[in-house]
Amino acid sequence: MIPEEFQIGTPIHQKEYLVNGELKVWKGEVTEVFSTISSTETYAPTLVGSIPTMGEAEALDALDAALGAYAKGQGVWPTMRVKDRIECMETFVKKMEVKRDEVVKLLMWEIGKSLPDSQKEFDRTVEYIYDTIEDYKDLDRNAAKFQKSSGVYAHIRRGPLGVVLCLGPYNYPLNETFALLIPAIIMGNTAVFKPAKHGVLLITPLLEAFQSSFPKGVINVLFGRGRTVAAPIMKTGKIDVLALIGNSKSANALQDQHPKSNRLRLVLGLEAKNPAIVLPDADLDLTVEECLAGTLSFNGQRCTALKVIYVHEEIREEFIKRFTKRVDALKFGNPWDDGVKLTPLPEPGKPAYIQELIDDAKEKGAKILNKKGGQHSENYVWPAVLYPVSKDMRVYNEEQFGPVIPILSFKDIEEPLDDMAASNYGQQVSLFGKDVYALAPLIDTLANLVCRVNLNSSCQRGPDVYPFTGRKDSAQATLSVHDALRSFSIRTFVAFKDNDLNNDTIEQLLETKLSNFISTDYIL
Ligand code: G3H
């Protein structure tokens, strides 16, 4: 029986979408939104609601609205004083905060995220917005000055890039999407935003806040398939930034549709195959716990998840013994169940996909080492710990993004290093060991293969003040509270030769406060 406070109640049939400052009512086709969580004793997916199935015409309307709000750089928003843009963002975040319970409940139903993790996703996003505001004030304060070199003065700021197409992932439908959208907007860009394929309805309680906090056309929210709405927008060649967290194939397909590749800036967080490397002297208790969290938090549906484990052969047996025991001791249940660690998979086809990976690995010589590994229910497949995994297996090559854990053993450290160098990915690594003589050269090498070396710690994105990026097919540009403001803007400045005419003009501009760009005002 689902506790009353978590019951979904009447399905939410979302009819409104936000374009050009108006919450328009959709009268066309809709797509039903189902949760893989059952609300009845005999298993059946639950209808959570429905969303508009928009098409090309609506997508282009939204693009027009964003272009109109940018107005070739003359729009109210891109030319607004930084202080005023910050005020709009503050209004928005305050309105957002009161929607916490609604959004958290939908996070649980739509993507199966546990209650504590759903609350964390919401709170982390709110904190991200406040931190972004503070960082932007700092950025602006540092720009509130003139500098002079070789007789030329310069007043250098960061300006917006234009219109951003923003697409987020289903595993962090709020946090990661907002970690793109918020810095993009605050820097003066305008945006068209389409929520992820799962975790869509949870955006709808925030539509009114978007509408009432920003000038019209600054944020436009569309619903529908990426293929139907994002592709036509890209084809126009009018997008200045593609901001996407998701898969490199979709990112490549969208980029290829843009006819002016040099106009298009990319802010991408893509897939990864982060390895754990367990050295012979690793502290096994700690390593097992970190690998457990790294591989299975949110069922492994994180781009930062540990997706392959390399264990030195000297400790392989002991590691596997302890690790498999811990995997099988995890609690599976609905997101609101106490102490739950494994939860229903939101993609109906995911258990079958994970099974394919398991079958392929077994055919090629791997075994499932844990008792419960591969056990199925309607919306789950128990994490299978697979060993020995070889490079011809799909589970070695594909980003599983789900509950299955491939293990390889190694004798020579060059083996995992060679694999990482050959991999298409380069986001993070977890390195477990104590001996500084072994660790030092490894850290120096690993830092050149990925972008974050986690020492005796699982891989993760947070804290959000740290750079989040990757090499090769794992990312383009860097995100963090600080870096995202830079990724969504460009350095642009006013320069003038030191002479009476110019100096007098600048003084007048400063005194009259007619320009929002030329200003030495200090935001507190
Ligand atoms: O899906 C990838 C996320 O950026 C992971 O973030 O490490 O905080 O779970 P996280």
Describe the structure.
- The chain is built from 17 helices and 25 strands.
- It has 524 residues and is α/β, with parallel strands linked by helices.
- The protein has a 7-stranded mixed β-sheet with strand order 15-18-19-14-13-21-22, with helices on both faces. The protein has a 6-stranded mixed β-sheet with strand order 10-9-8-11-12-24, sandwiched between helices.
- β18, α13 and β19 form a beta-alpha-beta unit.
- α4 packs across α5.
- The relative contact order is 0.13.
- The model has no long low-confidence stretch (mean pLDDT 98).
- It binds glyceraldehyde-3-phosphate.
Q: How many individual β-strands?
A: 25
Helical stretch tally:
17
Low-pLDDT residue spans: none
The major beta sheet can be summarized as: 7 strands, mixed
Q: Radius of gyration, Cα only, in angstroms?
A: 25 Å
Mean pLDDT: 98
What's the arrangement of strands in the largest beta sheet?
15-18-19-14-13-21-22
Helical residue percent band: 25-40%
Distance between the termini: 51 Å
The assigned structural class equals alpha/beta
**Shape, please?**
globular
Question: Strand fraction band?
Answer: 15-25%
Which ions, cofactors or small ligands are bound in this entry? Answer: glyceraldehyde-3-phosphate
